Amino acid sequence: MLVKKEKVSLLDFNPTPINYLPSLSKELGVELFIKRDDLTLYGAGGNKMRKLEYILYDAIQKGATTLLTVGGAQTNHGRQTAAAAAKYGMKCVIICVDEYPGEISGNILLDGILNAEVVLKKNDGRAQSVQLAETIANVKARYEDLGEIVYEIPLGGSDVVGVMGYYEGAVEITAQAKRLGIEDATVITGVGSMGTYLGLYCGFKNEGSPLGLTGIAILPFADYQDKRIVEYFQQVKQEYNLSIDASRKDFNIETSYTRGAYNNPDFNVRQAIYRMARSEAILLDPCYTGKVFAGVLDMIGEGKIRKGEKIILLHTGGMPGLYTKHHRLEFEKELIDHITILE
Ligand SMILES: Cc1ncc(COP(=O)(O)O)c(C=O)c1O
Q1: pTM greater than 0.90
Q2: CA 323: distance to chain centroid?
Q3: pLDDT value of position 33
Q4: What's 123's domain CATH number?
Q5: Is 1 part of any domain?
Q6: Does 63 share its domain with 76?
Q7: Are residues 201 and 306 in the same domain?
Q8: Which of these, 121, 132, 321, 334, is most buried using a 10 Å CB contact count?
Q9: Which residue segment(s) compose the domain that 100 sits in?
């Protein structure tokens, strides 16, 4: 590996498996594999553990005692940050500009079990960024008054430190693909705060991997995202002295499968979740991986993914999202017939 930064250990077993999906491959006429990054060991797992290995090391070097991060009320990243904090004896606070969902379920439940504080700032109509910055400053001051040294982690752990997690992930996937004889495959991942996609992109390109990479945006991709991915790449290039260059057109990110909004219940996403579960016994989530798989099914139908093509779907985790109220209520309507009640 060209670049290496120090990290703590949060995966504890490596690599996560890449498995062939025989039933779906046959049904869909493609060679479908899945990389199980949902199976990382701590706090119900997911893609953020790779980023957090590097972020935690940085936080420890800086003497941090509390991790502070941000996200939606059901942030998977927040839950994994809480797990990392628990494992390394730190406090954790997760800040969201969001409504209380009316119950403690999904990730918020797990956050509490892992002993993180979740701060929900009711949206008062001002710009989200302003409300978030104000809340971060207030909460940080409260922790500092108690003598804590607070380390701030940005949305999704997507900064120049966290990006190394999936740079390393790209090296791992390349070695596995070589062993499996599928080096001509394309890796497909969801794109949210972009650290997973960009880490993979930099890792594949900078290390000369033959694997392809496609991102599927899970929230509407506007001017901000177009600018952000280029700016983020430049920050990473500079930080690690990468020998590659890229502009917006080099990032292969599909933006037409977002289903209109972030974390919205969607019929086709639920159908994709049922299909994966009932053919391969693998559980996806309604916010990220289910949306990605629904996008893959559309891309196959539209011929964007050709028959016989080799695909490695990156399972980034997020399963607790199935238990969040607004998704669960939609699932309940469709699944009620699966319950037989006997008097
Ligand atoms: C389950 C899951 N998949 C994918 C993503 C997207 O990863 P990134 O934010 O690095 O783009 C996230 C991020 O929150 C996630 O929680």
Answers
A1: yes
A2: 17
A3: 99
A4: 3.40.50.1100
A5: no
A6: yes
A7: yes
A8: 321
A9: 48-157
